Amino acid sequence: MAKHMMPATMRGIVAVRADAGGDVKTILAGLQQDWDQFKATAQEKDREVKAKFDDVVTTEKFDRLNASVGEMQAALDQANAQLAAASLGGTGGGVRDAEYTDAFRAHFKKGDVQAALNRGADAEGGYLAPVEWDRTIIDRLVEVSPMRQIAGQQTISGAGFRKLVHLGGTASGWVGETAARPQTATGQLAPLEFTTGELYANPAATQTILDDAAIDLEAWLATEVETEFSLQEGLAFIAGNGVNKPRGFLTYAQGEAAAAVHPKGAIPVKDAAAVNTVTEDELLDLIYSLEAVYTANARFVMNRSTTGTIRKLRDSTGRQLWQPSSQAGEPATLLNYPITDMPGMPDFAAGALPIAFGDFRRGYLVIDRTGVRVLRDPFTNKPYVMFYTTKRVGGGVLDPTVMRILKMAAA
User: Fold this and answer.
1) What is the phi/psi pair of residue 18, to 5°?
2) Which residues share a beta bridge with 373?
3) Which residue, among 363, 356, 361, 355, has the nearest Cα to 402 in the 3D structure?
4) Which of 71, 196, 262, 284 sits at a 20 to 30 Å CA gap from 155?
5) Coil/strand/helix, residue 320
């Protein structure tokens, strides 16, 4: 098969992945089948290497199977994300304010301004989306944003969020039953502040579409907004500079721009010896550099390209370090720790930070300011009606001691 052609298995999986109701059992069965073939082909490549022979057909098959396994694992990860979003309880619950919701929909379609709509008027312009609609957007963001799936989350109503960090320092001592108890040293507390930046999307629709009663307008706009919001915030959670946007966790690494921002210091970095690959020992060093108390909920974070390279690694017994999901709801693993596919993570390159490991639930905090604001604009781009939609989002490292980052060698 030519390299530029997509294997039939991959085409089928892409189709399944595009359908939220895809058959997870079918994906699991296909994943296991290709994984078994991948391992068998790896052994075949080993025999060729020992014989000092390189069969291009075997190499092409090996690469093709590697890509197919990655596609099917990605399809399963998407299904798992949908299950995770549903488990948060965001769906259902009914309409909390039917009168305001009806008024918002009338404004949404025709621009009508009813008395009930004034309850949601925003000082900066536009109207706040109904609570149930706002929740729908958040659910979609949880589903598509890998960081939201694994990080801590905090909803606020003001401009920012402050948390006190305990830096230790409280002293104690042994004393006799009747001995004096002198004063001990007091622990130190330092403030940690999170600010929010404004995310916006400006989708458009014709009035004809808006007049079509068969169209679920809330679902349509939520989908449009989710696409833009998830792209922007996903990149910011990883490498954002903190200026009108979240501060990405990679910027807190030793030697990076925000290394001195957190009161507890920078995220420790482990160095790799090569530029384009890693070894089992380097991955083990990354794991064991983290205190045992934090490894129970720890995971690897990397992009698919990095995973594709790591999938080829094996231990001294010939067993692959990477293992696929064995059932729905479970991610792929690396050295028995779950992997989160994070598209915005860097590729292997000189000096890059392509792999992170740690307890992200304790380590990173996503901040959402309550409310999505919508400004209906039928004038700027006729015959389209624009919906200028904004939401304030922030984020930053909560505890750098619970994460580790692998840094590739310099060129």
Assistant:
1) -70, -15
2) 128, 390
3) 363
4) 262
5) strand
Handedness of CA 91, 94, 97, 99 (dihedral sign): positive
Tokens read off for 402: 């619970």
Low-confidence ranges of the chain (pLDDT < 50): 1-21, 88-92
What pLDDT score does 358 carry?
97
Structure token pair of residue 250:
């990679």
Strands 403-407 and 299-302: unpaired
pTM of the predicted protein model: 0.78
- Taken as a whole, the chain contains a residue count of 411
d(CA 272, CA 302): 15
Which amino acid does the sequence have at 73? Q
343: closest CA among 64, 140, 77?
A: 77
CA distance 19 to 169: 54
For the stretch 178-222, pLDDT in tens is: 888 777 666 677 888 898 999 888 888 887 777 776 667 777 777
Residues paired with residue 384 on neighbouring β-strands, in sequence order: 206
**How many angstroms separate the CA atoms of 400 and 47, rounded?**
44
3-state secondary structure of 40: helix
Whole-number Å distance between alpha carbons of 367 and 353: 24
The C-alpha torsion from 115 through 121 and 127 to 128, rounded to 10°, is -110
Cis link prior to 324 (omega < 30° from 0)? no
CA distance 120 to 127: 5
Closest by alpha carbon to 314, among 34, 41, 3, 67? Answer: 41
